[in-house]
Amino acid sequence: MEMLACFISHRVSQGSWNPIAVSRNGPRLFHLMFADDLLLFCKISKAQVIEVMHCLDLFSRELGLKVNLHKSKAQCSKKVSERRKEVFSGVFNIRFCNDLGKYLEINIGHAKASRRTTQEVIEKISRKLSSWQRCPLNKVGRLYLVKSVMAFISVYDMQIFLLPKYACNKIDFLMRQFLWKGQAIGKGLPLVTWEVAITPRRAGGLGIRDTSCANMAFLEKLVWNYLNNSKKLWEQVLKHKYLRNQSDMNKNSRNSSSATWKNIVNAYEHLKEGFR
């Protein structure tokens, strides 16, 4: 994959591969890789599609790693007509779709946290709870599972989405029910209040992570990385698209902004109160 990345970069430097940019002066995108997953970006033209397929074909012949086109997907701008999509499909035999699906359990489209999205998170936690109900666990064992498993099921979602308050309350409710009752419903006596349960152990609590606070902390981590200029690609893309050489983040949130950027701005409002 590193060899493929170098080869693509070489074709871009030669001018054969035309990358895309989401803002006028922003960084150009031509590929993103993680393990064996690959995203390729190019201008929407027949010549560019042929160039992409040519690069993949050379890569396959050199290393013997064939691209599975049946498991691949293509997506383009909403302004591209269906007729043009048919022309491109005939070139690379990859089906077009409106949604590239999920990666690490997160929708690649990064839409806002809708009721459907939050419901999926709650259902994952509920299924995990149901699988544990048949196990004879004492409160210490249940506390360990709550802290090490249940509280981390929604981690990927919380790094992108700002979950609604009702979703955070529901997740806390499921953790509370399992801790004291061993199931979603039933009888059980809470030994301490939930406020004590989510208090850190060094302060006399049980150390369970509060969902709403954890969600905001994950988004505030993005703000902190951004303000410290770590030069990551996502930071450069957002900086050129929304800030445009301005420093005040809360003045650059428009209705047309992406849901991810709005969540980051929301976290910035919470975090800046502690700036020194």
Summarize the structure.
This protein folds into two domains: about 1-100, no CATH class; about 105-275, no CATH class. The protein contains eleven helices and six strands.
* Portion in helices: 40-55%
Report the portion of residues in β strands: 5-15%
Rg over alpha carbons: 23 Å
The succession of helices and strands, N to C, reads HEEHEHEEEHHHHHHHH
Largest sheet: 2 strands, antiparallel
Structural class: mainly alpha
Description:
With 276 residues, the protein is mainly alpha-helical. The protein folds into 2 domains: 2-100, no CATH class; 103-276, no CATH class. The chain is built from 11 helices and 6 strands. The strands form 3 sheets. The protein has a two-stranded antiparallel ribbon with strand order 1-2. It has a two-stranded parallel ribbon with strand order 3-4. A two-stranded antiparallel ribbon has the order 5-6. A hairpin with a 2-residue loop joins strand 1 and strand 2. Helix 2 runs parallel beside helix 3, helix 4 (115-132) packs parallel to helix 7 and helix 9 packs across helix 11 (259-271). The mean pLDDT is 84.
Defining traits:
single chain; 276 residues; mainly alpha; 2 domains; two-stranded antiparallel sheet; two-stranded parallel sheet; 6 strands; 49% helix
What is the element layout, followed by pairings?
Blueprint: H1 2-14, E1 31-34, E2 37-40, H2 46-63, E3 73-74, H3 82-92, E4 95-96, E5 102-103, E6 106-107, H4 115-132, H5 139-148, H6 155-158, H7 165-181, H8 194-197, H9 211-227, H10 233-243, H11 259-271
Parallel strand pairs: 3-4
Antiparallel strand pairs: 1-2, 5-6
Helix pairs in contact: 2-3, 4-7, 5-7, 9-11
